[in-house]
Amino acid sequence: MQVINEQTNSMIDNLQVVNQILERNGYNPAKLIPILQQIQEEFKYLSKDVISYVANSLNLPASRVYGVATFYAHFSLTPKGKYVFRLCDGTACHVKKSHGILNALYAKLNINAENNTSKDMLFTVETVSCLGACGLAPVMVVNGEVHGQVTPEQAIAIVDELIAAEKAAK
Amino acid sequence: MDKKNFVIVNGREVEINGERNLLELIRKIGIEIPTFCYHSELSIYGACRLCLVEVQGRGIMASCSTAPEPGMVIQTDSAAIRKMRKINVELLLANHNRECPSCSRSANCTLQDLARKLGVSDVRYKQLTEKKPLDKSSPSLVRDPNKCVLCGDCVRVCAEVQTVGALDFVNRGSNAKVAPAFERGLCDVECVNCGQCAAVCPTGAIVPKSNTEEVWNAIHDPSKKVVVQVAPAVRVGLGDMFGMGTGENVARQMVRALKLMGFDAVYDTCFAADMTIFEEATELLDRISNNKPMPMFTSCCPAWIKFVETFYPELLPNVSSTRSPQQIFGSVARKTLPAKMNVKDEDLVVVSIMPCTAKKFEAKLDKFTHEGRPDVDYVLTTIELAQMIESMGINLKDLEGEAFDMPLGFSTGAGVIFGATGGVMEAALRFAVEKISGKELESVDFKDVRGLEGRKEAEYDVNGTKVRVAVVHGLGNARKLIEDMKAGKVAYDFIEVMACPGGCVAGGGQPISTVDNFRTKRASGLYKTDKERQLQKSQDNYLVEECYNECMGGHAGSHEAHEALHTHYQNRNLIFDARSTILRGKDEKLTDICVVLSTKGDTSKGQAFLGEVVNMVRANGLENKVNIEIAYSPKELDANLVYAVIGDKNVNTTLAEAVEIAKKCLA
After folding, report:
1. Is it true that the peptide bond before A138 is cis, omega within 30 degrees of 0?
2. Which residue of B167, B190, B435, B570 shows the fewest CB atoms closer than 10 Å?
3. Distance from CA of B299 to the nearest CA of A (A)
4. Which ipTM score applies to this complex?
5. Tens of pLDDT, residues A125-155
6. Measured between beta carbons, which residues in chain B are less than 8 angstroms from residue A51?
């Protein structure tokens, strides 16, 4: 059927992934937070559609699921880039000039604290309060990989590398 | 020492008698511990920290969330407690919109009251939060986040008592607020407009929307004739605002006040309630004898209707198609009054006074308009009526009484008890049992269905026909009953539902009462009036009969009555489904077509239907007139059917039939 377009197909595919996560958790409303965590792991953020769908599937009010999603800083309601930079801004990293790295990344990617995802949806830059690796300050985690004693130049180099890899992949 | 079941409060022994917390125990001995977030009918939240008491050996703790234990030594007041309570209120006031004189809850506000009682004479903190926008989207309620103290009473009444859950906390810390899902307007979510949130709100953060200005304008416009109908529950609630006894029927003084205000005629919704019984009981008898969908649910309560439309659309065929008394009155008024009052159709203004916020929503529905104008122009709550009376300087208590105008002011006792839970059922039984048995009732009282029990059940054997009835009030009780029914645990023939606990007497538009048992007292006021009436059965209302002869086809259930006094319902179940848009036109008014697809390996005919509809739209050049969407459901769907909402029609039928419906809708 032609009217079922690409958007529709990808929505059904996505929601089937959500179905699997819900099944894994036995459709248990008490497991709402792990369910949302697993969904966010899959899609990098929680869309309104997904929040509604989870609410319907668990027989919870959408307002409750939305409330939980907005309560925890961990959950994001806006889409994130393919590469998520988590820059530590805890006391040690702050003293070691983490904000210099942050500003360099913002300038390089033409983003800021409010709009922290690049237009091409490749990069998101976030700050976190402490990564617990103060001995390596300033610390940055890129898609799960930890970088210690980072300089602004090194941060930019990581971005360049990733851009080059993306181009090569195309 | 035999002091097993005692605690010491301020040096006095107090017996523990099943109280669930210290707060209840202490209040029992006449000390009114201050609270915001404690509500005896809701779960315990423990957020406001005003109910602090000192327990010897344990320190200062919240009395609402501490269970009484034998031997506890409690002090309800000390220098430290006093200071803490005061500073808590001061902090709440710091970010509160303090324009109290212009707030509709002024003089009836817990925050104001406590600040005065605790002696908070100065707020030392600067207001830091920016003014947040008001949510005026709903026709029934206005939310003002700037007056919210985050007690969560509204959140809990909506989720726990009503099982709707339209509101919850959003964000946290200093950014926390109460809002519907995705911070949408109340009108765009599952809110059923019952107004119980406004009834429990300790401040003015959620209030009924006011329409008094529009009504004053109509009254002051010499070209208009303004008539008013007053619902049964209003007469036993209004007196609260004028120092009259709780539950006292003040109908006669109220009619005089309405006349003094300038209404051209004052009618009684109880007349329309009698007419509702003619239609609804006739419908019930027809369903019983012609094998139509059973059980039948009542349809008087617009909050219940929106609830069933939203959460149980599959039960819509079981809901009586009879309009509510308010809308029946509107319909009759439009048909008969212009000629009687010698006024042009467009110059007749119909106002209704209701104990209810959801009635404001109901009156605005498209299906209750005729040639572009609503059958009922404005709906006021009891609270608004009291405010209008006060603004005239009228002291209701001192007025002499006056009777309702005829003919639409004439009612039987059955019409009057509509305002209490069980009242509609009892009125219907008085009609139906007499019709089935063909004999006059010996007693008109059906006491099994009265009272405040969450679910009331009864079975009547009428000439061998068994009629099983149930009455529920509070939507949580309605949900439980429906789930029990679906699980096969219970079965009934006729079910009355009122959304507000206690029925309309405790509706969201009624004055907020702090009197114990105010629901029972108001209901007793109605039952007392019923007893005093010479006529107690709707079928004895000869003016209703006359009205049928005049303009409704001569009898209940006639073709004319079906046109003017019945309605249909819509499926609102898809509000929160994941959606995607297939085709969205640019015109202002669009015909909505929403097709449901299952995400569990869809085999339904939805996709095929979608193809047909899109082809039909393209072939007729209607691209700009439709909004075609897909809703994704986690439920499994029947392989042979199409599930969709077309316009305001709920469709779950075969492909061919669905295409026919779409064709008609698009024509």
Report:
1. yes
2. B435
3. 24
4. 0.90
5. 999 888 889 999 999 999 889 999 999 999 9
6. 181-182
